[in-house]
Amino acid sequence: MNHSVKIAPSLLAADFANLQRDVARVEEGGAEYLHLDVMDGIFVPNISFGAGIISALRPHSKMFFDVHLMITEPIRYIDDFISAGADGITIHYESCENQEEVLRAIRSAGKKAAISIKPATPAFVLEPLLPYLDMILIMTVEPGFGGQKFMSETMANVEAAAQMIRDGGYSIALEVDGGISSANVAIPASRGANVIVAGSAVFKAQSPAQAISDIREEAERAYLLQAQERIKPFSLGENQQT
Question: Vertex 106, ends 140 and 200: CA angle to 5°?
Answer without folding.
Answer: 30
